[in-house]
Amino acid sequence: MSFFRSFNISSSALTAQRLRMDVIAQNIANVNTTRTEDGTPYRRKTLVFQERESAPFSQYLSRASRERFLSGSGAGGGVRVTAIVEDPSPFREVYDPGHPDADENGIVQMPNVDIITEMVNMISATRAYEANVTALDASKAMASKALEIGR
């Protein structure tokens, strides 16, 4: 596996985790948004991750590709975000008769965002980002040591 390939894999993960953090921040920012453009409360958003293939699937079926995979040149190509989807869970209902969006019974539908879940996801995204920075630094250090061999 080339060093540039490991850099690309780590950078794809950094990009995906940064987008994940952006979506988490958006969820937290809208925790009390009871009215969006379509008139409903804000719906929590999540990301769908998928492995980024480094080669077409047909190449993995051939014998030569299997040999390349065993030698380390057929490793994956990183990660990508395939979609940002809305959480279909029901909205929270809060009794607040003075709220402008309250129904005739004083019930307000609030977003389906749970701050605790978002904070846990934020910590997870931060740790994954840090782990990928560490992997990138290790690859960079290996490349630097390889260049020192020629001196």
Structure explained in plain terms:
The chain has 151 residues and is α+β, with helices and mostly antiparallel strands. α1 packs antiparallel against α4. The protein contains four helices and four strands. The strands form two sheets. A two-stranded antiparallel ribbon has the order 1-2. The chain has a two-stranded antiparallel sheet with strand order 3-4. The mean pLDDT is 86. The chain has helices spanning 3-29, 57-61, 63-71, 115-149, and strands at residues 45-51, 79-86, 92-95, 107-110. The chain is elongated, with a radius of gyration of 23 Å. The protein has one domain (3-31, 45-86, 113-149). The longest helix is centred in the last third of the chain and has 35 residues, at 115-149.
In short:
The chain is α+β, with helices and mostly antiparallel strands.
Task: Summarize this structure as a short list of keywords or feature phrases.
two-stranded antiparallel sheet, 15% strand, 151 residues, 50% helix, alpha+beta
